[in-house]
Specification:
Radius of gyration: 25 Å
Low-confidence stretches: 56-60
CATH class of the largest domain: Alpha Beta
Order of helices and strands: HHHHEHEHEHEEHEHEHEHEHEHEE
Structural class: alpha/beta
Number of helices: 13
Helix content: 40-55%
Distance between the termini: 78 Å
CATH architecture of the largest domain: 3-Layer(aba) Sandwich
Strand order of the largest sheet: 2-1-3-4-5-11
Length: 337
């Protein structure tokens, strides 16, 4: 097997010193354009790629950011990751993504791996029931960290999140103003931080407007679960005329459930999603949703970790985005009986 190309081999091929070749590859120093092109041509010919690990050891800074998240296959998460990656790559960073699947033990191993491999920073959606010692571990190693969506109690890290209660309150208010009184909440399970806040916004509006008693119906956050749960919800609560969903995937599944029994979303029963993933706009019919623009949210998350890396002493920041009600075709006044 041929020996891996090295910097001194590139320098020899280009007819320059190793120091000059190093400056060209790092984009530093006062190098003539002619010499720079000579070195780059030699590097391309030899298939040379600079050793990022060695550069990190010299500079004390890694150009790779870890992202610990849950359920990568969820389109919302995929769009967030895309925004993070695009923003960081413009600044010369790469992103390594691991899926903890909401398992604290699995997450713990991943966090230790990020520390062991000297990542330059961490973007982190804490798993449910994350033990306190995980926060202490990250703080002890002074790893620049930004939490996303969930903010653990006592966190000393920057945070980017969503104003969840405000968003579902706005969605419920929209349905009430259309004339709906029997509005259910569909999606998620348990009372984790994000879901609890969303349910709080929904129940607050139901109470303030004197609407029917709240109905909170569990569902996995995917289309199949949303479809099955919508069918079960309608069977148990046939008076329901509108549904606020925990996420767009659940909402899209709920729409499929209606079409399977010969009903039309927006005409026979109104449905509001949450997130505004790309599929929401192209669904049949297009989904009304509370939009948090996941790609742009990812870019904001990336900018936050970059700010922390550049200024480790800056005050802790907490940034929460508001959702926009995007009206499409799955909401309308209730049908007259």
């Amino acid at each position: 097997m041929a020996e891996r190309p090295k910097l001194d081999t590139v320098a020899k091929e280009a007819g320059v010193s190793v120091a000059t070749a190093s400056q060209v590859m790092r984009g530093t120093g006062r190098i003539s354009e002619k010499t720079r092109k000579k070195v780059l041509r030699a590097a391309q010919k030899l298939r040379y790629v600079p050793d990022g690990r060695a550069a990190s050891m010299r500079s004390g800074q890694s150009r790779e950011i870890g992202f610990a998240i849950h359920q990568i296959a969820n389109p919302f998460n995929a769009e967030v990751i895309s925004g993070v990656s695009d923003q960081l790559e413009t600044e010369g960073y790469l992103v390594s993504v691991l899926d903890a699947r909401d398992d604290p033990e699995r997450q713990g191993h991943q966090l230790e791996a990020f520390i062991r491999n000297s990542r330059g920073g961490l973007l982190w959606v804490p798993a449910l029931d994350t033990p306190r010692d995980r926060l202490e571990l990250l703080a002890a190693h002074r790893l620049p960290t930004v939490t996303f969506l969930r903010r653990p109690e006592g966190s000393v890290f920057d945070h980017v999140g969503i104003r969840n209660a405000e968003a579902t309150a706005a969605g419920t208010r929209h349905l009430a103003e259309l004339g709906h009184r029997h509005i259910a909440y569909l999606g998620g399970s348990g009372m984790m931080e994000v879901r609890a806040a969303r349910i709080a916004g929904y129940t607050q509006q139901m109470a303030e407007r004197g609407l029917d008693a709240p109905v909170i119906w569990d569902s996995g956050d995917n289309k199949l679960a949303g479809m099955n749960s919508m069918l079960a919800l309608r069977a148990a609560h046939p008076k329901t005329t509108a549904v606020v969903c925990n996420g767009d995937m659940v909402a899209l599944g709920a729409c499929l459930a209606l079409t399977r029994v010969g009903l039309q979303p927006g005409r026979d029963l109104s449905i509001i999603g949450f997130d505004d993933i790309q599929d929401a706009a192209v669904a049949t019919p297009p989904l009304t949703t509370m939009a948090v623009h996941p790609y742009q949210l990812g870019r904001r998350l990336a900018r936050t970790i970059l700010d922390r890396i550049r200024d480790p002493q800056m005050p802790i920041t907490v940034s929460e985005v508001s959702a926009d009600l995007v009206l499409r075709e799955t909401t309308a006044p209730p049908r007259a009986v």
